[in-house]
Amino acid sequence: MEFFLSCDWGTSTFRLRLVQVHDQAVRATVRLGQGIAQMAAAWQQTGDALSRQAYYTRFLNRQIRVMEQQLGHSLDGVAVVLSGMASSSLGLTELPYKELPFSIDGSDLLLQPLPNDRNPLLLISGACTGTDVMRGEETKIVGVADLLPAAAQELLLILPGTHPKHIQIQRRMVTTFRTFMTGEVFSLLTAHSILAGSVAPNNNLTDMNREHFIRGVQLSQTHSLLHHIFGVRTNQLLKNTPPEANYHYLSGLLIGEELKTLPADQPVYLLGSATHLQAYTLACEVLKIKTFLLPDADQALVSGQQRLLQRYRSL
């Protein structure tokens, strides 16, 4: 196997990568806004002229042909590995969640081949506890399994994002996890609340922005978050706080709220994008939580998909 196609099909975005197996280098990429939610709505408008699986597969095959045009050669026979919302109730076909615990090497995750003429498909399911679910994060965990300590002690792995996951791992098994709404609440507050006019998106952590982020993290540890977030408005009205600094202040409040229950004596392994890692590392520093940074989350996803494809082919 020289190449495989990595498909990360989320709620709002579609991303297809051609990955070279021996070094996991990405040789081509197609990225579109046709996430699972938009695909499901478009399929429903067809009046069931095609099955959902056939409709999604046809779209996927079109993107493979686009990639072939970019490359100038055929991708016939190259396997496609799909993770994320592709296995959800809105995806190609719904797969059941793997109930916890599961091994971080992916040996007991649920994998499902799907028929496709030119490019075989392999679908990865999610995982669940009695009260929580994940789809996509399980593949990233598999992708960093070799980078986590082999010791038997309990580890905490945090995946920041729209819906951050706090994942407990013991004896190389995922034993439980918790999902937080941090990223989505931040997006809603900055775009659709009374605070929208008091903030301006800016990912540059200047000295001023850093100072306001730290202040937000510190205040989050006291009193009510619902009180503190109104301070974003009063910062603008009474203190003339620049909207970029206010943006980081609100970010600090919400990330601090997410992390406030973590014990200071338990190290945290962070897996995310560069922007998320910068914010979470600083928040943990303020809260005196020791952190270890893992490689980029996109690379973890590709690594996990490759490992699961190789396992499936060895069965």
Question: What keywords describe this structure?
Answer:
Nucleotidyltransferase, domain 5, 2 domains, 10 helices
Give the SSE layout:
Elements: E1 3-9, E2 14-20, E3 25-32, H1 36-44, H2 52-71, E4 80-84, E5 98-99, E6 102-103, E7 111-114, E8 121-124, E9 127-128, E10 133-134, H3 137-143, E11 155-159, E12 165-170, E13 173-179, H4 182-192, H5 207-220, H6 225-228, H7 231-239, H8 243-259, E14 268-270, H9 274-286, E15 291-293, H10 297-314
Parallel strand pairs: 1-4, 4-8, 5-9, 11-14, 14-15
Antiparallel strand pairs: 1-2, 2-3, 6-13, 7-8, 9-10, 11-12, 12-13
Helix pairs in contact: 3-10, 4-8, 5-8, 5-9, 8-9
N- and C-termini, Cα separation:
15 Å
Q: Which class do the helix and strand fractions yield? A: alpha/beta
Tell me the fraction of residues in β-strands, as a range. Answer: 15-25%
Number of domains: 2
SSE string, helices as H and strands as E: EEEHHEEEEEEEHEEEHHHHHEHEH
Shape assignment? globular
CATH architecture of the largest domain: 2-Layer Sandwich
- Spatial strand order of the main sheet: 3-2-1-4-8-7
Give the tally of β-strands: 15
Helix fraction, binned, reads 25-40%
Runs with pLDDT <50, length 5+? none
How many distinct helices?
A: 10
Mean pLDDT: 95
How many strands, which pairing sense, and closed or not: the largest β-sheet? 6 strands, mixed
Specify Rg, calculated over alpha carbons.
21 Å
CATH class of the largest domain, anyone?
A: Alpha Beta
| CATH H level, superfamily name of the largest domain | 2-keto-3-deoxy-galactonokinase, substrate binding domain
Looking at CATH, which topology of the largest domain would you report? Nucleotidyltransferase, domain 5
